[in-house]
Amino acid sequence: MTLLRVENVTKRFGGITANEDVSFSLEAGQIVGLIGPNGAGKTTMFNCIAGYAPPTTGQIWLDGAKITGFTPEQCARAGISRTFQVARTFTSMTALENVMVGAFLADRNVGNARHAALELLAFVNLGRHGERAAASMTISEQRRLAVARALALQPKLLLMDEVMAGLNPTEVKETVEVVLKIRDRGIACLIVEHVLEGIMPIADAIIVLDFGKKIADGTPAVVSNDPKVIAAYLGEE
Ligand code: ATP
User: Fold this and answer.
1) Which residue of 9, 11, 16 sits with most ligand 1 atoms within 8 Å of its CB, as the best mutation to test the pocket?
2) Does ligand 1 come within 6 angstroms of the Cβ of 15?
3) Is the same domain home to 74 and 186?
4) What is the reported pLDDT for 237?
5) 191 - beta bridge partners?
6) Per residue in 125-147, pLDDT tens?
7) How far, in Å, is the centroid of ligand 1 from the Cα of 43?
8) Residue nearest to ligand 1 atom 18, measured at CA
9) Which of 95, 120, 121, 195 is the most buried (most CB within 10 A)?
């Protein structure tokens, strides 16, 4: 079943066309990677989907309902959560409080929000870290904390922006395992990532952007052998 449909989306900032006539779709429960060189328009596409910067033209559908032009809050209520490239944890709060902020939006009962937050901290392998100040956590821990907070909104679709950037191989592996567990809960994941060894083995599909346009869309095997993708992004290695 199609969960997300992006239809002919163009996003312009003055004279800059950050996304040009991009179309793709994502099925419920899929892991899809969105890759491409710096400045290709990946984060802009996330901003269009999650309501942070509406498309200039084109439409976005979630579960068959048009969500084009929705605010971030409306997108969240419709079932879209996201993490940001620079993890926006509330650094003066504990890890548990960070996740409770998300959980409160889904359930105003303090006890329920606390219970949900504790479960999600364990889910992202931060079960013993609830009372730590978010500011004292490693980058890897903060990224997983941001994932837990986004999951607290009970999304159907989670947008993850570079959750593996700057992590060591052990941390990448740990993050990949969390992504697989998210998929196993039936939540679809759209992932902007430059760490290809993290995303390629687990993605059902890869979409490649270059200069704002989609240049490839297919299985990781097909996309990584596509001459256009090799020329624009992957290189001969
Ligand atoms: P990276 O991999 O470096 O994060 P990206 O693929 O996510 O890059 P975007 O951040 O979406 O690329 O940027 C696409 C283009 O749109 C770039 O040329 C960027 O400078 C431009 N752009 C993005 N946001 C804005 C904005 N708010 N105002 C003007 N130009 C913008």
Assistant:
1) 16
2) no
3) yes
4) 56
5) 33, 160
6) 999 998 998 889 999 999 999 99
7) 7
8) 39
9) 95
